[in-house]
Design a protein that fits this description.
620 residues, alpha+beta, Glutamine Phosphoribosylpyrophosphate, subunit 1, domain 1, 6-stranded antiparallel sheet, 20 helices, 38% helix, 16% strand, globular, disordered C terminus
């Protein structure tokens, strides 16, 4: 993990000791002085500081002389990014650039926005960096962090940020491809929507072009002699990643977490066999299981989410280990970001042109999880996300794709990637700058039907795209063909579903009553500021329900994350003080999957399709 901050003081020289003090209070690894960099302008009003637990921070500094310093977060071909103007920088990799010179700070995010930079503004100081909490504390001059309650409402509602807002007052994130300049005149920000890739003239070579960029991204990897690890599921994106690594000749071991009967495990095993990969199954992460029960630590998971993710990612998602040892030879891959090739979220309702249906879809994505917010918090949060609804009115499905890349990829995946980088470089080929540029230049209509990702997969590993999936078919393959021979092969591709669809039959995060009780207790005993966001009545009603759905359990995780952040002041100065509080629970009875009952699965799909068609006809 490497952390950089650029600082501008309007009226006085920068106090380097003050900056170092704030870094020691929030960085999630010890002894940052072992690997650091510092640069201060002649007048003392512009500076850049960096710390790392990697032991190779100097490699991230691209230019360093008396006139300026330029650094890179993430990974890329550093020679290319050192030699060009930041505004026009384009290179494979997942990166962001930060340059400081006498008189100006310049910052730029890459096309996925997944290497996130933040701008913290105060009357006398502006800070730009890749850790939101650190930038905030330096900007305000130390003390307690000042939470942004509207930003925290987004975490309650969705588990991640839904606008450029963060959970700290006056701290905003850069959008994908956004350029920011800080001068004595103020902060200038570009309009990231104007930086979208230009649509390609035709689709003919799109699959080969994206496949070429993915292979080039993998070629950036400095692999150790042994195999890399791939998190393989039954879905599209990790399968495509397997195809990329296999085609590139990278030795790999595929790992899938879950029970043997889970659709993900069954299908991943078939994919690994097709490619000839070494495949291993493991229990779900975050839990220790034996013959007599299961042990989890909810408190530790919440604490890690606050410390590693700055409280901007709900603890339902695993973020990493505080003070983890950085392992440069560890290469772990997964399917994160592959949805960009499919135009997600636009793909969910790609064949619906009714604006009200699109509006309801966006409301479901950004507002449906806010049922426990107070009226004032809900109103303020709705106002904050209203520009997305304005964009939807103007641009339709394109706005849903923008939202996905800006928020779900840039902020959700970006926060997760930043947190995971404490243990390894957390490389993400699907979020590679050139891959994203090329994929997004393909017209949305050619992505939402899943033709692009199908063609890319077939280019890299012929036949792999025709193996069955867990949960859903290819969108273009949903209609049963009339030709008998073709129909037989179509039935062979029938997706595998279990008792929970394509989800695991058992998930300790949402299925254990003991976890529910622990989360509820942590929310109900929360800091008083929490109740400026949450309604006690609504929260009590939720936790008192006899049956809480999995979606509602995710909401409890989100609320408990925010409660933890406020109760501990985002763990400032106490990031290493967590005492384990394990929970012991009995193993649940095995839930049999209905994956081998194709008629029952087919009936379920038919009911869903009929219902969806009826809603389309009614315009609902």
């Amino acid at each position: 993990m490497h952390t950089f901050v650029a600082v501008f003081n309007r009226s006085s020289p920068i106090d380097a000791v003050e900056v170092e003090r704030e870094a020691s209070r929030v960085l999630p690894f010890r002894d940052p002085q072992q690997d650091k960099v510092a640069w201060v302008s002649d007048d003392g009003r512009f500076a850049l500081f960096g710390w790392s637990n990697e032991g190779s921070l100097a490699a991230k500094v691209l230019v360093n002389n008396v006139d300026r310093i330029r650094c890179m977060t993430g990974y890329a071909d550093s020679r290319k990014l050192a030699a060009v103007e930041i505004a026009g920088a384009s290179s494979p990799g997942v990166w962001a650039l930060l340059e400081v010179a006498s008189g100006q700070i310049t910052a730029r995010a890459s096309a996925s926005g997944c290497e996130v930079l933040y701008v913290a503004e105060q009357a006398d100081r502006v800070v730009v960096g890749n850790r939101a909490l650190l930038a905030h504390l330096i900007a305000v001059g130390g003390g307690r962090p000042v939470p942004d309650l509207v930003g925290l409402s987004a975490i309650v509602t969705t588990g991640y940020a839904t606008t450029s807002r963060t959970v700290f007052e006056n701290v905003r994130a850069l959008a994908p491809n956004e350029l920011v300049r800080v001068t004595p005149r103020g902060v200038e920000r570009s309009d990231p929507i104007t930086l979208l890739p230009q649509p390609a003239d035709d689709y003919a070579s799109a699959g080969e072009s994206v496949a070429e960029a993915l292979l080039a991204s993998v070629a950036l990897e400095d692999h150790q002699e042994g195999p890399v690890t791939l998190g393989l599921t039954g879905g599209r994106d990790s399968r495509l990643m397997a195809a990329i690594l296999h085609r590139a000749g990278v030795p790999l071991i595929a790992r899938t977490s879950g029970a043997p009967e889970d659709p993900d495990v069954v299908v991943a095993t078939e994919v690994a066999a097709y490619l000839g990969l070494d495949h291993h199954r493991s229990p779900q992460r975050g839990a220790v299981r034996d013959d007599s029960g299961i042990t989890v630590d909810v408190g530790q998971r919440l604490h890690a989410a606050v410390v590693l993710g700055d409280g901007m990612l709900g603890a339902y998602d695993s973020v990493g280990v505080i003070d983890d040892r950085f392992r440069p030879d560890l290469a772990a891959f997964g399917g994160t970001g592959g949805e960009i090739l499919r135009g997600y979220y636009a793909a969910d309702i790609a064949d619906v042109a009714i604006s009200e249906v699109q509006r309801r879809y966006l409301r479901k994505r950004v507002l449906s999880g806010g049922k426990c917010l107070t009226k004032d918090a809900a109103s303020a949060y709705e106002l904050d996300v209203s520009p997305w609804f304005d964009l939807l009115e103007q641009h339709g499905l394109q706005a849903l794709e923008w939202f996905y890349v800006n928020q779900r990829t840039g902020r959700w995946a970006g926060t997760a990637r930043s947190a995971a980088s404490i243990g390894s470089l957390a490389r993400r080929p699907f979020l590679d700058h050139v891959v994203v540029e090329r994929a997004r230049s393909v017209p949305l209509s050619d992505r939402v039907n899943e033709r692009l990702i199908y063609d890319v997969m077939n280019t890299l590993a012929p036949g792999l795209a025709d193996l069955r999936f867990a949960g859903k078919r290819w969108k273009f393959d949903e209609r049963q063909p009339e030709d008998p021979d073709t129909r037989a092969r179509w039935h062979d591709r029938a997706p595998l579903v279990g008792s929970k669809g394509d989800r695991a039959a058992f998930n300790w995060r949402v299925d254990l009553p003991e976890v529910r009780m622990e989360l509820a207790e942590r929310v109900l005993d929360g800091d008083e500021r929490l109740w400026n966001i949450l309604s006690r009545k609504a929260v009590s009603s939720l936790v008192d329900k006899e049956n809480v759905s999995r979606a509602e359990m995710v909401q409890l995780w989100n609320m408990a994350t925010v409660s933890q952040a406020l109760a501990t002041d985002f763990a400032v100065g106490t990031q290493f003080d967590r005492v384990p509080t394990p929970i012991r629970a009995a193993l649940p009875a095995a839930v049999p999957a209905d994956a081998r009952d194709p008629w029952r699965a087919r009936a379920r799909r038919m009911v869903r399709k009929v219902g969806a068609r009826a809603l389309k006809r009614l315009g609902r």
